[in-house]
Amino acid sequence: MKRLTAFAFALAFLPGTLNAQPNFDTIQVRARHLAGGVHMLTGAGGNIGVVVGDDVVFVVDDQYAPLTPKVLAAIRAITPQPVRFVLNTHWHFDHTGGNENMGKAGAVLVAHDNVRRRMSTDQFIEALNRKEPAAPRGALPVVTFTDGVSFHLNGDSVVATHVPPAHTDGDAIVQFTKTNVVHMGDVFVSAGFPFVDRSSGGSINGIIGAAEKVLGMTNAETKIIPGHGPLADRARLQAYRDMLVTMRDRMRREIAQGRTIEQVLASTITAEYDKEWPGGRERFLRILHQELSAR
């Protein structure tokens, strides 16, 4: 029963519900120890990675601004040390909403070049029909990278690697090398179909490629923090990659046969995956049809 409750809780904050505004007063931020000094925090929005040790507190993503006090309280329950670094896996508001608060508290904000570029100007997420105004200056990453960056702290190496456009054009995979933990941001959703944000440069082939990259750098014992959904492992990531390849190829055939998106939605194209990957089906199919039809 505990596993089902956690699964249902995770589903409530899959990317498919991004347009819904959570009631932050009722959200609880919970911490789960993964390995060594690495922990995973869940609340509303993207999953948070935290690594603590003798040197510094390093955080990956920070959810929504109203949750910052709860996020910091959850970290203080682990360690009294302040947060020194916050690294964003991409620019979306449910992963960067706490940036300004974290920066004011003394954290250095880090992200890919395209994260700062997109946060610096007004954005429009077409699939969500959502306008996102430019972030305040204090929320912008102050350290950016093009291909990757490494942090050597707490006796571990934290390596952030940019992947070609996948969920967005600014995605980073974060590897905690000695503890064998990887944070994948929204290029991996462990409980549903992914959100390919084409307005932000995303691509289904990029998501597949990112999954394949992480499969090549992990093993059966690796703990994988997804952008949304429960903690996962390499087997779950492999199933995700295989499902995406199958769905991409099926959609190509549907398009080649002249089927409209409404016809595809009414079909059983995802039938064997609907139970295992229950979130975001319609939006995923609409975006996939749109992307593959444009080629």
Essential attributes:
295 residues, alpha/beta, Metallo-beta-lactamase, Chain A, globular
Number of helices: 9
CATH architecture: 4-Layer Sandwich
**Within the CATH hierarchy, at the fold level, what is the topology?**
Metallo-beta-lactamase, Chain A
What distance separates the N and C termini? 46 Å
Compute the number of strand runs.
15
Radius of gyration: 18 Å
**What's the level 1 CATH class?**
Alpha Beta
Structural class: alpha/beta
- Biggest β-sheet strands, sense, barrel: 7 strands, mixed
Binned strand content: 15-25%
Helix content: 25-40%
Order of helices and strands: HEEEEHEHHEHEEEEEEEHEEHHH
- Corresponding CATH superfamily: Ribonuclease Z/Hydroxyacylglutathione hydrolase-like
Question: What characteristic shape results from the CA principal axes?
Answer: globular
As laid out across the biggest beta sheet, the strand order is 1-2-3-4-5-6-9
Q: Report mean pLDDT, rounded to a whole number.
A: 93
Q: pLDDT under 50 segments (min length 5)?
A: 1-17
Q: How many separate structural domains? A: 1
